[in-house]
Amino acid sequence: MAAMFIGITVICYAVAILLWLRFRSYRYLLVVIAGHCTIIAEPILQRLYSLTYPDNVAAITMFGNAVPIYALLAASWIGSLPVLLMYFGQQQHWWTRHYLTGVIAYVALVLYHIIIQGLAARTGLWRYSQSVGAWGINFYLLMAVFAGLSSLLLFYAMVASRYYAAEIAVPTLVAASIGSPLICFGLLGAPFWLPRLIGSSGNFTKPALLVIAGLVLWVVHLASAGIHASRQQHVIER
């Protein structure tokens, strides 16, 4: 499974370079490269969500935490691959920028991350200390909800900045790639990990789950409204 992740990384780079040469768009390659930087969120996930990796794999040490090489490589596409496909579809006019587009995109992104989380759980690529929480909801599903939201924010950043000059678009996309998982897993996930951090609970409770659901729906609404509003944007031509 780790070898497959590495192979997908190589394919993503090859396709991103081809799209750069074909359409003169650096965005695909930029997002793939910036994806590696999302690995800085790994120590946070390990600390706040008790994320663990197998012991017998090649790894690097980051902030005192072991991060497998395959996780570092796969970080380039795990969150961004469906986003790049959706953005390519928008560029080819396969869909219109509409509020419903953002909602449908989020549902599709969550389903994609459920598959990724399921494969990881079955093959042991990574695990969490708990598997079931409030109302019997699978913990991997909660992670897929956060990961899907992180991808949606990156998708919104790509759509909203599609005509920006490189001087504005490059830092915007890099910031979105790095910041979106920190916001989703760190800030929006606080109702779950904060009680655990102070030792008051070992599980995510029903009140925490309701707060998280409200925060996620609010961010999905904002991102979808932003995608809809981008149709009227007047921005700098690249």
Automatic annotation (TrEMBL):
Keyword terms: Membrane, Transmembrane, Transmembrane helix
Transmembrane segments: 6-21, 28-49, 69-88, 100-120, 132-156, 168-188, 208-229
Protein's UniProt name: Ferric oxidoreductase domain-containing protein
Organism field: Herpetosiphon gulosus
